[in-house]
Amino acid sequence: MVKTINRVKEVEVASVAGSNTLTAGAPRRAVERCKEAIAKIGVLQTPVIGTTKGGNRLLLSGQCELMALRELGIKKMDAVEVDVTDDVGARAKLQLMLISLKEEPGALCEGLLLEEAVAAGVPRIEIQNMLGKSASWVSNRISLVTRLDGNVYEMVKDGLLDARSAEEVARLPACVQFAFAEAAVRDGLPKSAIGRLVSGYNDETCPDAVKAEMLKDPRTAMRRMTDIRRGAKADKPNSGKGVPPYVMEECINTVKAQAVRLNRILTYASPITVTGYIDALTELETELLSLLAMIKKRVYPGKKEVGNHAG
């Protein structure tokens, strides 16, 4: 039997030290909306604070709420209080865990909620002001819902396709969305792969045969897309001819250094931060795969597979 654990305590707002890092992720509009919500219905997300052995209170989650409460002149607040050590690493991991628990609704969910609000008679200008969003943002979210094939939406509701992947599928022509979604789910494709295939399908230069294969065997189609792209680059005249040795060495060292740096950044970046660069990282992955294939081709000329010779 699970016993209930309640760590909510009433604390002085002034006794909690805010976080400069969390402040950077609390835009002014978000704080103002938080103030409006608190004034109408109270604090919706209880801040989490860490108490050190010395009695200091450090904010771990809830910067918008803390700033809003201070600006409203509220002296006391409820907060989830946990004991924290002076170990900066342990505290950082706890904060990352708290961030990971804050799930963003996603564009598809937002679009469905907006569509319901508009259907209920809520004026769009009121929705824009309430969310602090532009008219085009609201239109794009609602458009996403109207573009998505009904059968694909049912796959999302049934848990077969995640909402983020459905957002990518919605960029395809309506007549092929369901067939593509079925194939993608069958092959267990991640959102990054789905997005890459969708971009390829919408590319006017993509051969019809490859597009047709995406609806039947998307993994094979992805490999063919990579081969086509690699071949197109290889056909460019004077690509790399007469390159001085120092240029080659400089380029290799630069790529190595940037790869180490990016690896370190991704290791410590929050899931929310990484989400904002998914498209760029997907393109980078394609470029790196192409580069790896070229390196193998030049390092092992004439060999399809290293170690594929008879003993």
Report on the architecture of this protein.
The protein has 311 residues and is α/β, with parallel strands linked by helices. Among the domains are: 8-100, Alpha-Beta Complex (Conserved hypothetical protein from pyrococcus furiosus pfu- 392566-001, ParB domain); 105-147. The chain has helices spanning 20-24, 28-41, 63-71, 88-100, 106-119, 124-131, 135-147, 150-157, 163-169, 174-186, 191-202, 208-214, 218-234, 245-268, 271-275, 278-299; strands at residues 8-12, 16-17, 48-51, 57-61, 76-83. The protein has a five-stranded mixed beta sheet with strand order 1-5-3-4-2. A hairpin with a 5-residue loop joins strand 3 and strand 4. Helix 2 (28-41) crosses helix 3 and helix 5 (106-119) packs across helix 7. The radius of gyration is 26 Å and the shape is globular. It starts with 7 loop residues before the first strand and ends in a 12-residue tail after the last helix.
